């Protein structure tokens, strides 16, 4: 499904995954002390433009993914309205006997927009990064031990297998006439065989990795190398320009 709404080999897909992860962490740290609603609103708009323009993700698909974050952001506004931090201020309107002030709405919108910024930058990283390239980048650029990096890659590949095994277990139970009863007993029927299969896969994977030299040594060769390229330089310049713009926009509101 993701491939249908995403264009491959766009600018953000070519950027080093470790660099994109660092950018996400910097954005999160920078947005923590920002309390005005306009700075995160500007950053959210720029992020959506980056994902759709430079990431090749369709706007409609991105909107569907952002819908839970929008509901989460609205919850901040609603909490500030129902449980205000301060009384008085500029009253906009009333809900029954509850006055809604401009200051509380502004605080709720600021918190909600920050949540949208965090969610949009997380989607920017997830939608434009291949898991295998991300792990290889952590191993090669961030010096993550190979046994941890390749172990996480193997665990990620197991997830579709667990889904298929669960489907097979449910089919086998129906064939044997066990039915689809809900409750703790039914959960136990699924949990025990899935856990046994996971343990077997983990043991086989550990033996295979040890036999192939994945013992934590960093002096090893790689079939697929992740190199720094000109797209990383362009992304760094664009990101620094974005940070400068955020600083100039947020400075008057924080004064």
Estimated structural class: mainly alpha
Q: Rough shape?
A: flat
Total of DSSP H or I helical runs spanning 4+ residues = 9
**How much beta, percentage-wise?**
under 5%
Radius of gyration: 24 Å
Give the overall pLDDT as a whole number.
80
Written as H for each helix and E for each strand, in order along the chain, the element string is HHHHEEHHHHH
**Major β-sheet annotation:** 2 strands, antiparallel
What is the distance, rounded to the nearest whole angstrom, between the alpha carbons of the first and last residues?
46 Å
Count of structural domains: 2
Give an overview in words.
The chain is mostly helical. The chain has 2 domains: 162 residues, no CATH class; 67 residues, no CATH class. It contains 9 helices and 2 strands. A two-stranded antiparallel sheet has the order 1-2. Helix 2 packs antiparallel against helix 5, helix 4 runs antiparallel to helix 5 and helix 7 packs antiparallel against helix 8. The protein is flat and about 65 Å long.
List the helices and strands and how they pair.
Layout: H1 11-14, H2 17-31, H3 38-54, H4 59-82, E1 91-95, E2 98-101, H5 102-127, H6 131-140, H7 146-175, H8 184-211, H9 230-254
Antiparallel strand pairs: 1-2
Helix pairs in contact: 2-5, 3-5, 3-9, 4-5, 6-7, 7-8
Keywords: Membrane, Transmembrane, Transmembrane helix
Protein name: Energy-coupling factor transport system permease protein
GO cellular component, one term: ATP-binding cassette (ABC) transporter complex
């Amino acid at each position: 499904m993701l491939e249908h709404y995403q264009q491959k080999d766009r600018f953000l897909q070519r950027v080093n995954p470790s660099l994109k992860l660092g950018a996400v962490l910097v954005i999160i740290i920078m947005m923590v002390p920002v309390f005005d609603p306009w700075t995160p609103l500007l950053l959210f708009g720029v992020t959506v433009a980056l994902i759709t323009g430079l990431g090749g993700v369709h706007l409609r698909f991105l909107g569907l993914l952002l819908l839970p974050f929008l509901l989460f952001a609205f919850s901040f506004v609603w909490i500030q309205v129902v449980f205000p931090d301060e009384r008085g201020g500029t009253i906009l309107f009333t809900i029954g006997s509850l006055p809604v002030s401009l200051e509380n709405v502004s605080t709720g919108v600021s918190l909600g927009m920050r949540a949208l910024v965090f969610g949009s930058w997380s989607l920017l990283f997830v939608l434009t990064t291949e898991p295998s390239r991300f792990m290889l980048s952590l191993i090669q650029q961030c010096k993550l031990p190979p046994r941890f990096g390749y172990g996480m890659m193997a665990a990620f590949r197991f997830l579709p297998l667990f889904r298929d095994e669960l489907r097979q277990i449910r089919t086998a139970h129906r064939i044997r006439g066990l039915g689809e009863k809900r409750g703790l007993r039914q959960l136990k029927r699924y949990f025990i065989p899935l856990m046994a299969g996971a343990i077997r896969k983990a043991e086989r994977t550990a033996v295979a990795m040890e036999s192939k030299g994945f013992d934590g040594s960093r002096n090893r060769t790689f079939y697929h190398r992740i190199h720094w390229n000109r797209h990383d330089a362009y992304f760094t310049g664009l990101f620094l320009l974005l940070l400068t713009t955020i600083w100039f926009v947020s400075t008057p509101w924080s004064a």
